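Example 293.
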Amino acid sequence: MTPRPASATARIDLHTHSTASDGTLGPAELVRAAAKAGLDVLAITDHDTTAGWEPAVRALPPGLTLVRGAELSCRWYGTDPAVPLHLLAYLFDPADPDLVAELARVRLAREVRGERIVELLRADGIDVNWSEILAGAGGGTVGRPHIAQALIRAGLVATTTEAFGPNWLGERYRLPKDDIDVFRAIRLVRAAGGVTVFAHPRATRRGRIVPDELIVELAAAGLAGLEADHEDHSPAERAHVRGLAAELGLLVTGSSDFHGTHKTVQLGAHTTDPEAYERIVAAASGVTELASG
Ligand code: AMP
Ligand code: ZN
Ligand code: FE
Ligand code: FE
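Predicted structure in complex with fe (iii) ion:
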């Protein structure tokens, strides 16, 4: 299939999650919801997996272009303790053996960490059950939002946001997982023909962020862009990211980071300029066609 050039008015959302990770809509439901929301281009970017790609392509409504992607769990090991961060990866070859192996390793690390978090909770007398939580993830990449659901079911918290508070998964019961070194992730995605964008790089409300000096180094290592318009960025943070991108010649994206009912943000709440999207497509190489409905 050939990529369709985006019109100047195209509505483009380049960061969304399905049940292949911690979203609540299945990949098919996600693409249908995207068309209904009036989007022209949608990227599916589940955490550390490409499992949603096929069902999304199969269900693609006419007129919607799908950008196949993933959100990679990375870490910057240049400081102690290492800082976790998310890289959006687009249009890479899903069969690339090195990348496939790394994603499988990270998904397993997520299971190990999830089970440990549950052990910590249980040691404090909190009645949550790991096999139930795993079942709740339905075979998709498991994450803290699935544990949050168990805390809600147990009546311990009312909302996902509360479950991510300091008394729960945000701090007290937060454990690190074994992520991908961010420089290695950029190399792997590029070697697989893909393009990387740093997701929500200044989201201080999520925890620690990396210094701008690291972003300079990432740009030199092949990072293509920065996500500026994101729910977790204040107006000042968005402006800062745009300035940094301009300085470094990086493209800038905006996206919803839609998670269905696990978050309140709606599809298309933030969008990417067609010009930036075209740069992503142009920077991709290899067997990475866009699927167009
Ligand atoms: P994990 O990938 O297991 O570390 O869980 C992190 C995921 O939980 C992120 O990708 C977000 O989608 C979600 N998340 C993080 N903070 C919050 C929050 N405060 N409220 C709701 N969801 C959150
Ligand atoms: Zn998520
Ligand atoms: Fe993220
Ligand atoms: Fe995300």
